[in-house]
Design a protein that fits this description.
The complex is a heterotrimer.
Chain A (H helix, E strand, L loop, with lengths): L3 H42 L2 H35 L1 H35 L6 H30 L4 E4 L4 E4 L2 H5 L2 H31 L4 H36 L1 H7 L12 E8 L4 E8 L2 H7 L9 H27 L4 H10 L3 H6 L12 H10 L4 H30 L6 H9 L3 H15 L4 E3 L3 E2 L9 H32 L10 H5 L5
Antiparallel strand pairs in A: 1-2, 3-4, 5-6
Helix pairs in contact in A: 1-2, 1-4, 1-6, 1-16, 1-17, 2-3, 2-7, 2-17, 3-4, 4-6, 6-7, 6-15, 6-16, 7-8, 7-14, 10-11, 10-13, 14-16
Chain B lengths: L4 H36 L3 H12 L2 H18 L1 H10 L1 H20 L6 H31 L3 E3 L5 E3 L9 H25 L2 H29 L3 E5 L16 E5 L4 H5 L5 H18 L3 H23 L2 E3 L9 E2 L7 H28 L6 H6 L6
Antiparallel strand pairs in B: 1-2, 3-4, 5-6
Helix pairs in contact in B: 1-2, 1-3, 1-6, 1-7, 1-11, 1-12, 3-4, 3-12, 5-6, 6-7, 7-8, 7-11, 8-10, 10-11
Chain C lengths: L1 H32 L12 H18 L3 E9 L9 H18 L6 E6 L2 E7 L3 H18 L7 E9 L11 H18 L1
Antiparallel strand pairs in C: 1-3, 1-4, 2-3
The chains are: A mainly alpha, B mainly alpha, C alpha+beta.
Chain lengths: 520, 379, 190
């Protein structure tokens, strides 16, 4: 058993490093495609302004990409460094998508990104355009594989526990790849990236138009971002809905927790828009409910119920007891008693082995757990509702606001009335929303997975490396310190180049080059 | 083709080695150039030339390293989990140093201030030197064995300290790593530059090739006088991965046992000296392209020497020897190895093809004129 | 199934972005073709110019962005009737051709205001640069453009800059009238 402090610190560190990494990833995912669109327009129309757009937004892309790579390196290492038992226990399954991510996606993206920046003079128009598309493809493929891995953490299909090696092992690679949780997550996450990039370009273009600078440039950027962004935000919302549906099938406890669904209600269940959930009392005070909505969205039917937390808890009490049996049988197998009876019994209970492992929090031996400890373990098997409830609603609220903004933006750009001050200001203020939505979304996904690292298979408190508190304090301090410095530098440079606008390309046709002569 | 577990484990040992060697050959010269940066570039433009010689391709090269890590996770998850948590501080240091690179390359020339630029050059130097050193130190420690053990639920416990990693033999390995990557970086720089920088490169190639070979010879003598490891129980190459069932002994000079068994293997360290010398000659006679090939061969043979020497051990344990991780008992399941094998067979050739194409498109010298003409877009 | 949807959705989203902007391009191209041009010089007409000046004044008021107005007046046309009609036309056309080459494409606006006056609006140009540009034009026209002797070229420059949200502001149209008046006066006094 690892000291609770070490586990908590490891969790804080992983949360911090991954949330930080995800500040930069969505922009890379989406902006790479926006660049591809701009360059395609350049090749199609031959107009230099689109090349300027590709190069200017590309400059901002580069500033962002640098930190995406930096923080991504940490993630690759962190599984082994801080979560070594996890890495052993599920590495057979989890390691494969990570390795494939490297082979298929990272190589593609990183090899061609250099050529994107430095190959303008050495490649023909069509060749360079292909490169840009490949960079976009590479970054998105990388999202695919890491989300296949994460999807497996939420819904561990296609794998089986092997008592001889004490780990999970792959039984079906196609189940892993086509895991419904992975599929939905992937499309939802990349769509969120597209939305982020579109909101980014929209806001900055709006800023230029508000300042009356580089109008033609800004208007075209705005128009492209509006179109792409509307499709993106629609996809995010639809796929978000689909995620909820999938959770209702394969990760019921997460859906119940997000919605503070304490009891299984008569179908179709009502959606609690606002309220104060209370986990100890298992109720939501001051709830404002919208009838039928949750049932319809969550199950796509009028008669299927959404399982409530109380019912899940009841089931889990039984599963903990089964888990104890499984654990005892596992020990016998490990000691060498491998007769048919033991093996069949173990196979019968092994899906609940994870629940048995929850007891390790209270007693190392597991098999000697008291009724009270079993009750505690069952309670522990449910995630904390209050944080999930609010972060989920924050994410959805941001999503719908962005939807409205993109609808306005598309209409305005189609009728060429983008210069309305109210719309431009709205576009500008929308800038932080996609980031808030992305980070709260990830919080919902991962905090909703607790107390497990692999749902129902391996609890978080058992997954950490055997390190000391000092080790964790030092690494946490190092990451936080360095990352803060990097963020300040990155924002400084980003703001500098945004303020300069396309004049930073030194082509001789933009605002600052005209107004003040060549000196900048 | 149906491979059995034994063959796949062997193939994956080779593939992991290939990825590490691939990193040394590609990312290696990036590290070497970064180390040489403050010494070979005497003014801002010269240093920009050096940075831009690797600027467009360094990111793709670093992916060899990331993929090697991913492959270690996929094919040898036990080794991945024990090594990465055991060498915690060493890896943390390496990581922090590697952070400097993407930011250093992209941001250094974005502001004109000299102070800003010199700071990033120091950062780039650190980002080259520390990883190069630590990779060697890590390898050296693997050869000596590190203290770790498992409990009966296969949870690993590393009982060594960071400072213990910096022992003399490991530091020697670290220095070999640094000097051979400097040699390799200097050769690459010789291909990409002209005039003054080019001249300085040639000197560096000679100096560091000689240092590398000398230190390598020293390491060879030293390794004969430290404890190596050997499995004494029956090896079951097709059994499920469980490191706890074997018996391992330590013994003086056992790391040369494989060479004694198959004398033909002596060609590998021999090649290191031949290729190393060839590098010096080829560099002097102004054939840097060929020098690059021989330099790559030098790197390959140095790394392969260590790997062959240790085989079948991946990570010997100095405290509880029987827990050592070997090729036969630390791998993933047969299914995983098979899947990963086919994926690699498809993608590795594709990667090599398009990487070569990119290098071809970007071929040619980086001159001071080029920097002046591209002041605002170059790194 | 969702992976497939992703690819489709992505193509759809990219197409939406491209189509949206291509429509913009088409609309602007149409606009350009349908602006009435002066038949002789192929420059903008007075009405279009006044409309554009209103935009510039508005823009400048929003964010303090300066713009210059430059007039080129070929004096002596009306007064000296020695010149044949076609000579006048040719000269004007030559001057117009020269200016079209020299101004910044897509940024500056050139229009023929009346028989002998050409007006150029140059956004973003501060006083010094505008004056330099004006004298350069004058020199070049004098040296390069083929014109009969006794033809005088007058060039005047006016730089307009408005503090943001100036309350002591009359309507935009009135303002443009003022500007044109000021420029005319300047021309005659130079």
């Amino acid at each position: 058993m690892i000291a609770e402090n070490v586990v908590d610190l490891s969790r804080w560190q992983f949360a911090a490093t991954s949330l930080y990494h995800f500040l930069f990833v969505p922009l890379t995912l989406g902006l790479s495609f926006l660049l591809a669109i701009m360059e395609s327009t350049y090749v199609m129309t031959g107009k230099e302004i689109y090349k300027d757009m590709t190069q200017f937004w590309g400059k901002l892309f580069g500033i962002n990409f640098a930190l995406g790579v930096t923080t991504g390196l940490t993630m690759e290492f962190e599984f082994g460094m801080n979560w070594s038992y996890f890495s052993h226990y599920v590495g057979d399954v989890f390691g494969a998508p990570l390795a494939i991510e490297g082979l298929m996606a990272f190589f593609l993206e990183s090899t061609f990104v250099g050529l994107f920046f430095f190959g303008w003079d050495k490649l023909g128009k069509g060749q360079h355009l292909l490169i840009t598309w490949l960079v976009a493809l590479g970054s998105n493929l990388s999202a695919l594989w890491i989300l296949v891995a994460n999807g497996w953490m939420q819904n561990p299909v296609g794998a089986d526990f092997n008592y001889e090696t004490m780990r999970m092992e792959i039984t079906s690679f196609s189940s892993l790849l086509f895991n419904p949780a992975a599929q939905v997550k992937f499309v939802h996450t990349v769509a969120a990236g597209y939305t982020t990039a579109s909101a980014f370009v929209l806001a900055i273009s709006a800023y230029y138009m508000l300042k009356g600078r580089d109008a033609a440039f800004a208007q075209r950027s705005y128009t492209i971002a509006a179109g792409f962004g509307l499709a993106a935000i629609l996809s995010v919302i639809v796929l978000g809905d689909e995620s909820g549906y999938t959770d209702g099938e394969v990760q019921k406890v997460k859906l119940a927790a997000i919605e503070a669904e304490w009891h299984t209600e008569a179908a179709p269940a009502a959606f609690t828009a606002i309220g104060i959930p209370d986990q100890d009392a298992m109720e939501t005070r001051y709830a404002v409910k919208i009838p039928w909505v949750l049932g319809l969205i969550g199950t796509r039917s009028v008669d299927e119920p959404i399982t409530g937390l109380t019912e899940i808890l009841e089931k889990n009490r039984l599963r903990v007891r089964n888990g104890m049996k499984a654990y005892a049988l596992l020990h016998e197998l490990r000691q060498g008693k491998r007769d048919d009876v033991t093996l069949t019994e173990f196979d019968r209970y092994k899906t609940d082995l994870g629940y048995g492992l929850l007891l390790k929090r209270y007693t190392e031996a597991v098999v000697d757990a008291t009724d009270q400890q079993i009750e505690l373990a069952a309670q522990y098997s449910l995630p904390r509702v209050v944080p999930l409830f609010w972060t989920f609603r924050a994410m959805v609220a941001c999503g719908f606001i962005m939807l409205a903004v993109f609808v306005f933006a598309v209409i305005a750009s189609s009728i060429r009335r983008c210069r309305q001050t109210w719309l431009l200001k709205l576009s500008l203020y929308t800038l932080p929303l996609p980031w808030i939505a992305c980070e709260t979304g990830w919080f919902v996904a991962e905090f909703g997975r607790q107390p497990w690292t692999i749902a129902e298979i391996l609890p978080t408190f058992l997954s950490a490396s055997s390190l000391t508190e000092l080790d964790l304090y030092l690494s946490l301090a190092g990451y936080l310190g360095l990352y803060t410095v990097f963020l300040i530098i990155e924002m400084f440079l980003m703001l500098k180049f945004i303020k300069l606008g396309p004049s930073s390309l030194h082509k001789g046709r933009y605002h600052f080059e005209i107004a003040k002569g060549a000196a900048l | 083709m149906i491979f059995d577990y034994e063959t796949l484990r062997l193939i994956w040992w080779a593939l992991l080695g290939a990825l590490l060697i691939g990193f040394a050959i590609t990312g290696g010269f990036d590290l070497g150039v970064a180390i040489l940066l403050p010494f070979l570039g005497k003014n801002d433009t010269e240093r920009r030339v050096i940075i831009n010689s690797i600027g467009a391709t360094w990111e793709g090269n670093q992916v060899w390293f990331v993929t090697a890590g991913g492959a270690l996770f996929a094919a040898w998850p036990m080794a991945y989990s024990v090594a990465f948590s055991g060498f915690y501080f060493a890896l943390l240091l390496t990581l922090f140093a590697l952070f400097m690179r993407p930011i250093g390359f992209d941001y250094r020339s974005k502001l004109p201030s000299q102070r800003w630029r010199s700071n990033w050059e120091i950062a780039l130097f650190v980002g080259g030197f520390i990883p190069a050193l630590i990779f060697g130190v890590a390898f050296g420690n693997l050869l000596e064995g590190v203290p770790f053990h498992f409990d009966d639920e296969m949870r690993s416990f590393y009982t060594g300290s960071f400072w213990a990693l910096l022992n003399p033999f490991a530091l020697l390995a670290g220095l070999i790593s640094v000097s051979m990557l400097i040699m390799h970086g200097a050769v690459f720089l010789q291909i990409k530059t002209v005039d003054a920088i080019n001249q300085r490169c040639k000197q560096m190639v000679t100096v560091f090739a000689l240092i590398t070979m000398a230190l390598f010879a020293l390491a060879g003598i030293w390794i004969a006088n430290i404890n190596g490891y050997q499995i004494t129980s029956e090896i079951l190459p097709n059994a499920p991965s469980n490191p706890l069932t074997k018996i391992v002994t330590k013994g003086l000079g056992l790391w040369l046992a494989n060479y004694a068994h198959y004398p033909v293997l002596w060609a590998i360290p021999g090649l290191a000296f031949i290729a190393g010398s060839a590098t010096i000659i080829l560099s002097k006679i102004k054939r840097p392209g060929l020098a690059f090939i021989s330099s790559s061969l030098t790197l390959t043979s140095v790394i392969l020497t260590a790997g062959v020497s240790m085989f079948p051990f991946l990570m010997p344990s100095s405290s509880v020897m029987n827990s050592s991780l070997t090729v036969w008992d630390a791998s993933s399941s047969l299914t995983t190895l098979k899947i990963m094998f086919w994926v690699t067979m498809v993608f590795l050739p594709i990667i090599i093809i398009y990487t070569s194409w990119v290098f071809r498109v970007l071929r040619g010298k980086i001159t001071q004129e080029h920097i002046h003409n591209n002041d605002h877009s170059a790194y | 199934m969702w992976y497939f949807t992703w690819i489709l959705g992505l193509l759809l989203a990219c197409s939406l972005g491209i189509i949206n902007v291509l429509r913009l391009e088409a609309q602007e191209a149409w606009d350009k073709e349908h602006i009435s041009l002066d038949p002789l010089t192929q420059l903008m007409t007075k009405d279009s110019m006044i409309r554009r000046l209103k935009e510039k004044v508005d823009n400048s008021r929003l964010n303090g962005f300066p713009f210059s107005i430059l007039t080129i007046n070929l004096t002596g046309f009306s007064e000296q009737n020695d010149f044949l009609d076609y000579e006048v036309d040719t000269t004007l056309r030559n001057v117009a051709d020269y200016l079209k080459e020299e101004v910044r494409a897509g940024v500056d606006i050139v229009a023929r205001m009346d028989k002998q006056t050409i007006l150029i609006a140059m956004p973003g140009l501060p006083v010094k640069t505008a004056e330099q540009t004006a004298s350069r034009f004058k020199q070049d026209i004098f040296n390069k453009v083929k014109a009969p002797k006794n033809l005088a070229v007058e060039v005047a420059v006016l730089v307009a800059q408005y503090p943001i949200n100036d309350s002591a502001f009359t309507t935009v149209s009135k303002e443009v009238e003022n500007l044109l008046q000021m420029v005319c006066n300047k021309t005659h006094t130079v």
